[in-house]
Design a protein that fits this description.
eight-stranded mixed β-sheet, 2 helices, NUDIX_hydrolase-like_dom_sf, DNA repair, 8-oxo-GDP phosphatase activity, magnesium, Nudix_hydrolase
Length: 128
């Protein structure tokens, strides 16, 4: 089972969401950015490293949310989410097709990867 961390990056009441490219698994679906846990690193180190690599963005972990175990047809993963803050809205798009800052109220409008849906729902409950 893959262990993957993802970041719900907040900045001035906006949330950063990313659309997977056509060449990635789960093409064109939306997700919170992140990546695979490497041997010897903590989940917090993983998410900070992945966001630095994928987006050239510095983040700080604010709090963890509930991990999600999801079984797709060809692989299974444990998705470990973190609410994070950032100092700047600046990012570089290196892997994704599209990246946008979304209003919290619009988060359910995206076509999310299935594993991300419970995370979106938990996050929105926390915001109310």
């Amino acid at each position: 089972m893959l262990k993957v961390c993802c970041a719900i990056i907040e900045h001035q009441d906006k949330i950063l969401v990313a659309q997977r490219s056509e060449t990635m698994l789960l093409p064109l679906q939306w997700e919170f950015p992140g990546g695979k846990l490497e041997v010897g690193e903590t989940v917090e180190e993983c998410i900070v490293r992945e966001i630095k690599e994928e987006l050239v963005m510095d983040i700080a972990v604010v709090k963890p949310l509930t991990p999600v175990v999801h079984h797709y047809d060809t692989f299974s993963l444990e998705l470990i989410p973190f609410v994070c803050s950032c100092k700047s809205v600046h990012f570089e798009r290196k892997e994704h097709k599209n990246i946008v800052w979304s209003d919290k109220q619009r988060l359910m409008d995206f076509e999310w990867a299935a594993a991300d849906i419970p995370i979106v729902q938990e996050y929105l409950k926390l915001c109310n």
